[in-house]
Write a structure and sequence with these properties.
The complex is a heterodimer of chains A (280) and B (325). With 280 residues, chain A is mainly α. Chain A has a single domain (2-276), classed as MetI-like (MetI-like fold, Orthogonal Bundle). Chain A is built from twelve helices and no strands. Chain A has helices at 2-11, 13-30, 32-35, 67-103, 105-119, 123-134, 138-165, 168-175, 180-188, 193-217, 228-238, 245-272. In chain A, helix 5 (105-119) runs antiparallel to helix 7 and helix 10 (193-217) runs parallel beside helix 11 (228-238). Chain B is α/β, with parallel strands linked by helices. Chain B folds into two domains: 7-106 and 176-264 and 271-279, P-loop containing nucleotide triphosphate hydrolases (Rossmann fold); 109-157, no CATH class. In chain B, 30% of the residues lie in helices and 24% in strands. Chain B is built from ten helices and twelve strands. In chain B, the strands form two sheets. In chain B, strands 6-7-8-3-9-10-12-11 form an eight-stranded mixed sheet, sandwiched between helices. In chain B, strand 11 (310-313) and strand 12 (316-318) form a beta hairpin. In chain B, helix 3 (112-124) crosses helix 4 (128-141), helix 3 packs parallel to helix 6 and helix 4 packs across helix 6 (160-172). Chain B is globular and about 65 Å long. Chain B starts with 6 loop residues before the first strand and ends in a 7-residue tail after the last strand. The chains are: A mainly alpha (280), B alpha/beta (325).
Chain lengths: 280, 325
């Protein structure tokens, strides 16, 4: 683990920068309640649309709420939604991809046609329909995004599994008397870990973006919850000319976080490749 | 009275469905393996020797493959009648297999020690810590230097020969009564080949387990095998002791094989003779003897019926019509 960190710093400076931003993001998200100087819905009509200052780091919005505090609470929501959504998506991808790819034959055929059918629906339409039916809320968004990205991502894992399955060590494991579950768990899963990790990091970013998009359209977590997407579409869009910081603050948060996650994911993929382990 | 065989294969037939029809990769093969002996199965590529080995362990991918008939009696029990779950308890426990590609037979994502320890964990639920200790002993038994440290190594840090040693250690983990080595040295350097085969011979002698050695290298056969079975076109064409096969080859194919191998005792300047023609196409075997198109002694009967194995000397069988006259 220590060696991994050293190598991350030395060989992947961009990835290391991404890791630092991700850590700051996580820290802000987890400790938002302690870090934020004001409540996310603390209205102060005397301080409407104030530019950034020592008192309000990122300025205030049209209701006089502190944008810095709202961004911190927004990070909290993004952390929760991003990580649980991505975890669900990756788990679904792994289960579908590994089972379908390893068993092959009819199971594979049926599963893949189902995945095809699912993927042929435009994502946004499914999201909007589900949210319209179930009503907006964090739980719905996590489950729907997890399912949506998970089923699509299973393709990538299945492809890797199909090539891993043909490896001699899988046959060797069969000849050793290992059962299917053991082979999947100990011999297939570790060898699809690199794509799974990349998929997970990629999905964290994608879920955060998708959630912002939904909130922007008004289908996300309902106000006054301070989601970054909601901030962009609400006060951000309406008061962009009077207070550009209203759009810039959540927009930049979103950009930096998604970019940092992608950089870290790429760096991890290269570093975790078992063929590169032990090499300089 | 001779000991009863450990493994009796009777009329084993394995088929593969292909686009060109059903291919019989193994066609009515019968042989015995006695406790403690080394049986070499010899044949060229596509003669069915690997499929025979995989059929014994029921590792034929199904579909397209299928064991169409016969019996595989291990210790009197027909392995072909076991359920898949029962079969899993045989594999790696009483029968273990070593493959020909040591470079890819080890899982790149697991340390060597864990992989050697895995058969113990699979079959006896040995806790990992104890199993890894056993792996250290196994590694030193297959002459890997500094075994205590090497159990934590990764496969990519091992050379081909070392990996094959690790594979042998893995196969030995549960002290199997039968080892099947499918061309264990084909992918290795010549000097390493001899070391690996010596090692295999040594460990089988120590444990008294039997060995089926699948190879196309007749030099290997002469040095390591007690008995030899020669396969051609999915059928067994000759079997006997190693001495029988080398000194008194009887089937024209075996005679041809022997003539194509350089010998130290051959006259200076003499040329090696090759067997003319191509190995048979299993999807379109000739109606009679599969070797007939390439045989120097071919006559009319060879195209009509398939010759059966008959005893040309005690325990020396050969399938050729020449022996009838």
């Amino acid at each position: 683990m220590k060696r991994l960190l050293v190598r991350l710093l030395r060989e992947k400076p961009l990835g290391a920068a991404g890791a630092v931003i991700c850590l700051v993001f996580l820290f802000c998200g987890i400790f938002a309640d302690f870090l934020a100087p004001y409540g996310y819905n603390q209205i102060s009509l005397l301080n409407r649309v104030k530019p950034p200052s020592g008192q309000f780091f990122f300025g205030t919005d049209n209701l006089g709420r502190d944008v810095f505090s709202r961004c911190l609470y927004g990070a909290q929501l993004s952390v929760i939604i991003g990580f649980s959504g991505a975890a669900l998506a990756t788990a679904i991808s792994a289960v579908i991809g590994i089972v379908s790819g390893y068993l092959g034959g009819k199971t594979d055929l049926v599963t893949q046609r189902f995945v095809d059918a699912w993927m042929s629906f435009p994502e946004l339409i499914i999201l909007i329909v589900v949210v319209s039916v179930l009503g907006p809320g964090m739980g719905q968004i996590i489950v729907v995004l997890g399912l949506l990205l998970g089923i699509g991502g299973s393709r990538i894992i299945r492809g890797t599994v199909v090539s891993v399955r043909e490896n001699m060590y899988v046959h060797a494991a069969q000849s050793m008397g290992a059962g299917t579950l053991r082979i999947l768990w100990r011999h297939v899963l570790p060898n699809v870990m690199p794509p799974l990790i990349v998929l997970f990091t990629n999905r964290v970013g994608a879920v955060i973006l998708a959630e912002s998009g939904l909130s922007f359209l008004g289908f996300g977590v309902p106000p006054p919850a301070p989601t970054w997407g909601g901030m962009l579409s609400g006060s951000g869009r309406a008061y962009m000319y009077q207070g550009p910081w209203l759009a810039l603050a959540p927009g930049l948060c979103l950009t930096f976080v998604v970019y940092a996650i992608a950089m870290l994911g790429d760096a991890l993929r290269d570093l975790l490749d078992p063929r590169m382990r032990g090499s300089r | 009275m001779p000991p009863s065989p450990l493994l009796q294969v009777r009329d084993l037939t394995t088929e593969f469905r292909t686009e060109r029809g059903t291919v019989r990769a193994v066609n009515g093969v019968s042989f015995d393996v006695f406790p403690g002996e080394t049986l070499a199965i010899v044949g060229e590529s596509g003669s069915g020797k690997s499929v025979t080995a995989l059929s014994v362990l029921r590792l034929i991918p199904t579909p397209p493959g299928r064991i169409a008939g016969g019996e595989v009696l291990f210790d009197g029990q027909n392995l072909l009648n076991l359920t898949e779950h029962q079969m899993q308890r045989v594999r790696g426990n009483s029968i273990a297999m070593i493959f020909q590609e040591p470079m890819s037979s080890l899982n790149p994502s697991l340390p060597i020690g864990m992989q050697i320890a895995e058969p113990l964990n699979v079959h006896h639920n040995t806790p990992w810590a104890k199993a890894i200790d056993a792996a250290k002993t196994l590694l030193s038994r297959v002459r890997v230097p500094d075994a205590a440290r090497r159990v934590d190594a990764w496969p990519h840090q091992f050379s081909g020969g070392m990996r094959q040693r690790a594979m042998i250690a893995m196969a030995l983990a549960n002290a199997p009564r039968l080892l099947i080595a499918d061309e264990p040295t084909t992918a290795l350097d010549v000097t390493v080949q001899a070391q690996i085969l010596d090692l295999l011979k040594e460990v089988t002698r120590e444990t008294g387990s039997s060995l089926i050695l699948i190879t196309h290298d007749l030099g290997v056969v002469a040095r390591y095998a007690d008995r030899v079975a020669v396969m051609y076109g999915g059928r067994l064409v000759e079997s006997g002791t190693a001495t029988d096969i080398y000194e008194r080859p009887s089937h024209p194919y075996t005679i041809g094989l022997m003539a194509s191998v350089p010998r130290l005792d051959s006259a200076a300047g003499s040329r090696l003779t090759a067997i003319d023609g191509q190995p048979p196409d299993l999807a379109a075997l000739p109606p009679g003897c599969a070797f007939a198109p390439r045989c120097r002694n071919v006559h009319a009967r060879c195209g009509e019926a398939v010759p059966v194995l008959r005893e040309v000397a005690p325990n020396h069988l050969s399938a050729c019509f020449l022996h009838d006259t």
